[in-house]
Design brief:
Layout (H helix, E strand, L loop, with lengths): L3 E14 L9 H11 L13 E7 H4 L3 H12 L3 E14 L9 H11 L4 E6 L5 E7 L3 H14 L1
Antiparallel strand pairs: 1-2, 1-3, 3-5, 4-5
């Protein structure tokens, strides 16, 4: 069902909240422009209806966080903006996941049963991967839980 589990620690999440952002033409582009202007590339870009998060390496924000946040505020006038450090990303990948019932449930149950809180979930429409964000200190525990649920089981 899955062909790989990979992950990495050391990420920060910049979360921008704004009511009705989906009705503002170019909102996402303006946020990404602030990152580009400050020389910061992003790792992942999960979003919701009124929330957009940009995941970057923690080291990329060194000496740039203040300028970045000022640019985002000036360009988008958000309701709230927050930066969270200490995030790890885990990608569960597999062509066998496409339209296979219960894959996400099995992943999330394994993580839950190992006492890890999921901070972020993202699955692309291709259903080829599920990306999960957890606290960096829970990274190994979450990786082992997923591995044991799919490879060992």
């Amino acid at each position: 069902m899955i062909t790989g589990i990979a992950g990495k620690k050391g990420f920060a999440v910049v979360t921008i909240d704004k009511d009705m952002m989906n009705q503002e033409l170019g909102f996402g582009r303006r946020i990404l422009w602030a990152f580009e202007k400050n020389g910061i590339s992003f790792e992942h870009l999960p979003s919701g209806i009124d929330t957009m998060s940009v995941i970057v390496s923690e080291s990329a924000l060194e000496n740039k966080k203040t300028a970045l946040l000022a640019d985002i505020i000036a360009l988008t006038n958000p309701d709230h903006i927050h930066v969270e450090y200490g995030i790890a990303l885990i990608a569960v990948v597999g062509r066998g996941m496409v339209q296979t019932k219960g894959t996400a449930s099995k992943i999330f149950t394994a993580i839950y049963e190992n006492d890890v809180n999921i901070r972020m979930i993202d699955q692309g429409s291709s259903e080829l991967n599920i990306i999960i964000g957890v606290k960096s200190e829970d990274f190994e525990k979450a990786m082992n839980a997923i591995y044991n649920a799919f490879v060992v089981a």
